Amino acid sequence: MSPNVPLDTVSVIGLGYIGLPTAAVLAQAGKSVIGVDIDQSTVGAVNAGRVPFVEEGLETVVAGTVARGTLRAQTETPEADAYIVSVPTPFKGDHEADLSYIETAARGIAPRLSGGELIVLESTAPPGATEFMADVILGMRPEFAKEPNLTSSLYFSHAPERVLPGRIMVEMLENDRIIGGLTQEAAELNRDLYASFCTGELLLTDARTAEMAKLTENAFRDVNIAFANELSIIADRQGIDVWELIELANHHPRVNILQPGPGVGGHCIAVDPWFIVSADREHAKLIAAARGVNDSKPQVVIDKVLERADRLKKPVVAALGIAFKANIDDLRESPSKSIAVELADRLEDGQVLIVEPNIDELPRELTGRADVELADLADAVQRADIVLVLVDHDPFKVFDREKLQEKIVIDTKGLWR
Ligand code: SAJ
C-alpha cells in the first residue's frame, strides 16, 4: 500500500529537454503543474505556450495545458505535493559527475517542505546521487530525518528518464520505467504519480539499482556503437564496405551490430558511461575503452577529409549535418559540429559550407568567419569539391545522387551507398 498522501500539485525543477515534456504530460494527465527554471526566457516562453527547442508534438501539449491553466512556469520553487528534479548532471575534472545542479535544486526545495512530500530525482546520475539529494534536504530540514517511514516524513526516489530525443512525447507515455526508492513507500508513491501519465510497466527497485540501470542502458549502447565504429575504421583500411559487412553479419540470428558514424554525441551516451567509470575505475575497462573509441572517431573523419583536401587548391567542403543525430536541432556534444569547426580551422585556403536544415543560424563557434557559411543542400553540393555526410537527416536521403558525380564523397553514415 502506498502512503496516503496527495499528489495533486507537482513541481518540475528544470524545464529542459526532459523536464518540460514531463511537466507537460503530467499537466495533460490532470495534475496542477508548476515548472521551475532559472532561465527567465524559458519561463516566459512556457507561460506563453511556446517551447524553446524542437521536439515533435511537445508544443501542442504545452500550449493546451498552459491555456487550460494546469501548467505554468516560474523561477521560484513553490510548495507542492511532489517535486521532480530534472536538471543537468555534466561532468567535471576527470569525468566525475557534477552534482551541483542537483544540490541547488534540493536547496530550493527544502524550505518549501511541510512533510509528506515525494521528491523524485529524474536526472541521470551516479550511484548514490539520490541519497546525496536526500542528505542535502534533510541537512537543511533535520526535523524530517527523525521520523522515517511516517506519513509526515519525506519520500525520496529515483526515476531515470529513458526517452529518445525526437520521440520524447511518445516514449514518455509508453516506455517502461525503473523506479528506485530510498524506501519502499517512496518507490510506491513515485509509481502512483507516474501511473497518471505512463502506460508502460513501472518497475520498482532501490535507488542505487535504478541509478546504475540507467547508466547501464546508455553504456550498453555506447559499447555497441564503439564496436561498429571500430569495425568501420578496420574495414576502411581493409578496403571493405563496412555497411555491407554489418548488414551481412546481422543476418546471423544472434548478431545485431549498430551503425557506425562520425562519433557519438548528445548529452547522454557520450557522458553517462563515464559515471560508471568514475565509480569504479579499476574494473570498468571495457566501458572506458568504448568511450575512447567513440571519442577518437571524429579525428579519423577529420584526417580523412584533410588527406583528400591536401591534393586540391582552395578546397570547398560541404558538411552535411552538424546536429548530434538525425532530424533534430540539438547541437550539444555533437561530433559533427566539432568536425566542422576543426575543418574550418585546418583547411588551408579552403571553405566549409554547412548544411543543417534544422537550424536558422550557425552556432557561436562557426559564426563570424569568412571561410564558413550556412548553405542549402543543392547549392552546397554544387559548390563543393568534397561532400562530407555527417548526419543522416531525412532530406539528405532523397538527394539526387546524379549531382554527386565528380564530387569526392566521404559518407560517415552510409547514407548513399
Ligand atoms: N549513434 C550511432 N550509431 C547508432 C546509434 C546511435 O553512431 O547505431 C549515435 C547517434 O548518431 C548519436 C549518439 O549515438 O550521436 C546517441 O544517439 P542515440 O539515438 O543512440 O541516443 P540519445 O543520446 O539520443 O538517447 C539515449 C537513449 N538511450 C538508449 O537508447 C539506451 C535514450 O533512450 C535515453 O533516454 C537518452 O540517451 C538519455 O537521456 O539518457
Characterise this structure.
The protein is of the alpha/beta class and 417 residues long. It folds into 2 domains: 9-200, Rossmann fold (3-Layer(aba) Sandwich); 252-411, NAD(P)-binding Rossmann-like Domain (Rossmann fold, 3-Layer(aba) Sandwich). It is 40% helix and 15% strand. The protein contains 14 helices and 15 strands. The protein has helices at residues 19-28, 40-47, 58-68, 100-109, 129-140, 168-174, 184-194, 207-238, 242-249, 272-279, 285-309, 335-346, 377-383, 394-397; strands spanning 9-13, 32-36, 71-74, 82-85, 91-92, 96-97, 118-121, 155-158, 177-181, 202-206, 316-320, 351-355, 372-374, 386-389, 408-411. It has an 8-stranded mixed sheet with strand order 3-2-1-4-7-8-9-10, sandwiched between helices. The termini are far apart. The mean pLDDT is 95.
